[in-house]
Amino acid sequence: MRVYVPLTLSGLAEAHKAGELGPGPLTAYAVTPGLREWYVSDDIEELEYAALSRAAAASLRLLAADPGAARRRVVVAVDVPDREAVSDPDRGLDAGALGEVRIASAVALAKAAAVHVDSDDADADVSAAAAALGAADHGDDDAQFTVDGAEDHELLWYGVQEIPHLVGLG
Q1: Are 98 and 38 in contact, with CB atoms under 8 Å apart?
Q2: What is the pLDDT of residues 16-71, one digit of tens each?
Q3: What is the pTM of this model?
Q4: CB-CB contact of 156 with 118 (8 Å)
């Protein structure tokens, strides 16, 4: 199963240094039954994009919690055995948990298929979105508009071998 693990650039640097995403448990996003029902599509590429988008939103939450982190959403796509990505059946249709899965233990970075990161031109919108997230969560429509502005930026695809360059080691 392809899962999408939300991170920050500093989290990616730590994972690169350790050679793994972790420690567990990890929160990730995948094509779950709840996500399939919510998205109403049988196209696996569309469903995986929806799971990636959910992970990007979770990465934004990590940025909001860490004001010192570089303002780039980061998602690592990793392939794990189906049995290792467990969704909570009680939260399957909870809008906040759509596509969410838990992975009990660390995952070797060597299992990563790709890394998705915001481009430099997303900096202002991602910064504003991270700052507005709390107000958006409390129903502020203007803040939600600002948060949605980050979603207008597509995450760029990078090969795993490009991680040192992304985190400033290459």
Answers
A1: yes
A2: 999 999 888 999 999 988 888 888 778 889 999 999 999 999 999 999 999 899 99
A3: 0.92
A4: yes
DSSP class of 162 = G
Q: pLDDT tens across 111-129, in order?
A: 999 999 999 999 999 999 9
What is the amino acid identity at position 161?
A: Q
Using CA atoms, how far apart are residues 48 and 58, in angstroms rounded to an integer?
Answer: 15
Rounded to whole angstroms, the maximal C-alpha distance in the chain is: 44
DSSP string, 74-124: EEEEEE--GGGEE--GGGTT-GGGTTEEEESS-EEGGGEEEEEE--GGGHH
19 sits in the region (left: phi over 0; alpha: psi -120 to 50; else beta) called left
